[in-house]
Amino acid sequence: MDYYSGQISRLIEELSTLPGIGGKTAQRLAFHILNMPVEQVEKLSLTMTEARKNICYCQECYTLTDKEHCPICSNEARDHQTIMVVESTRDLAAYEKTGKFEGVYHVLHGAISPMLGIGPNDIKLKELIQRLEGEVQEVIIATNSSLEGETTAMYISKLIKPTGIRVTRIASGVPVGGDLECIDEVTLLRALEGRVEL
Amino acid sequence: MDYYSGQISRLIEELSTLPGIGGKTAQRLAFHILNMPVEQVEKLSLTMTEARKNICYCQECYTLTDKEHCPICSNEARDHQTIMVVESTRDLAAYEKTGKFEGVYHVLHGAISPMLGIGPNDIKLKELIQRLEGEVQEVIIATNSSLEGETTAMYISKLIKPTGIRVTRIASGVPVGGDLECIDEVTLLRALEGRVEL
Fold first, then answer.
1. In chain A, at which end, N or C, are there fewer CB atoms within 10 A of the end residue's CB?
2. In Å, how far from its chain's centre is CA B110?
3. What 8-state DSSP symbol labels residue A18?
4. In sequence order, what are the residues at sequence separation of 6 or more whose Cβ sits closer than 8 angstroms to the Cβ of residue B88?
5. Could you report the predicted ipTM of this complex, rounded to two decimals?
6. Contact: B45, A48; criterion CB under 8 Å
7. What's the maximum distance between 2 C-alpha atoms anywhere in chain B?
């Protein structure tokens, strides 16, 4: 890319290493950044480096946070006896957006995947088991509805069941607003199996 | 977004101010950045701030560059008597990618648009006229084929014609590989008007 001067090409190159940012988008972003006020560019880069440097795992639920304990775990008003197990901090955020879940979370940072060589020891599973030594009443498994997510859910349920703690899995079925004819057979069968009394 | 800790939300917020980056993409980018090695994040932010600080207009063609003269203008091998007028540095790069244009450029940084209140004095037009005092033989107008681009092209040609310098406009027509039935009437008419002898 020698039709741009050195620093512009370097910027485009670095931006295009980000996920979902191709060559064209990287160019557009680069020229946007070059047209932004200097202070704003400095603020953006400072936010990036500061966030990256200060980020750590919450010592309780292992979500990404910038303190020793995340805002959810340090909130006394929440029900610390109900733990929802999710694969990532973004999944946690998705449930938090509903605003209806009162319990706490446990972030696994991945799912068991023999295909990718990710075993039970590669995700935060030991840490979940350690947390169960406290006064936990229910573990809600909210891993994704993918092959890996289901495998992980089965594995966790088998591990926890013997301790007598209640283990549940979020329901699988037709999404709200979903059009039946556009939904795959497996989901339709799951919805049928999981039918509830009206 | 209080379901993320302060620094993560700030990062997501800042990223989503970039063009074409919505809330979901900003989240994905933020978590990618948080998972990158610290040095890489530092490198990215340094590239951003350095590029922004050192960027300036080339003193000859007004493209964005990090030196007083851009690599194209300082290249003695190029034909400095042929100037291609483009709207932006990205348009310049688009023509440079073809690798066939031997002349130099002039970047207007915009186009005349009465709708947006952009007049001839708001783009680098005076600077173009000043350059014509040298030994220029041809001005090729390669502004976009939009209303604003066409208006700008007409304006420039009327301005330069009296000086006796040759003024040309890049051809308008059916794109290579284009399917006739998918092309609008105006383009089809242009292609007909601009037909060439075989």
1. C
2. 8
3. S
4. A31, B107, B108, B109, B110
5. 0.76
6. yes
7. 68
